[in-house]
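Human: For the file, kindly provide a plain-text protein record giving the amino acid sequence and the backbone structure tokens, at your earliest convenience.
Assistant:
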Amino acid sequence: SAHRPRYHAAMTPQEFTARHFLTIHVMAYENANCVLALLSSLLPFTRPNVCIVVGDNSDKTTDVRDTVAALAASGEFGNRLLYHSYGVNIGIIGAILRPFDLARSPYLWVVGACNQFRGGALDILLPILEQHRPDVFLHYEDNLWRTQNILEQRTYGDVLSLIRDHSHSIATSINSMVYATSKMAPLLPMAYEAASSLAPHTAMIYEGLRRG
């Protein structure tokens, strides 16, 4: 029916994300209030080449699903909001890496649910991705979370220089990275092997730089 929530469409996350340039994948776990605040911070959602996948890592509650259903039914996100349940709790490492298995868009931004975007964040980010097509875009969290101003942009060819100029917490924060999915996909098995690390996604960057 016309009131059927958008995410119930017979479409896999792979099919859904393949239609867009950037996927924002929200890692959710029994925090529907955070999911609501984060998604609301993206309104008005006017970018037709951006989609949102909410990956639910809980097998106990339906609160996140119900919240996404209400937002999808409101029509404010058009047909660009998808709810995806993992069915079981796959843990924090699984929640970080699984989006790389699911995304088929050129770019992927994985974010924790308990964050909010500043107005204009996508207006800052998208032109950079579209014009420069970086393998990985690292940003200070203040750039896109709390302010609309890009304070600094640099290109790094080695990890030591990056860590020298930035704190380790920034360099390893999942929120601070936007990835070219095609570049990361071949490195994903190695990232799963590094699952003992709290930041296995960073292992993909290290390995990518090592391979040149």
User: Anything to note?
Assistant: The beta strands are 22-28, 50-56, 81-85, 107-112, 136-138, 177-180. The first helix runs from residue 13 to 17.
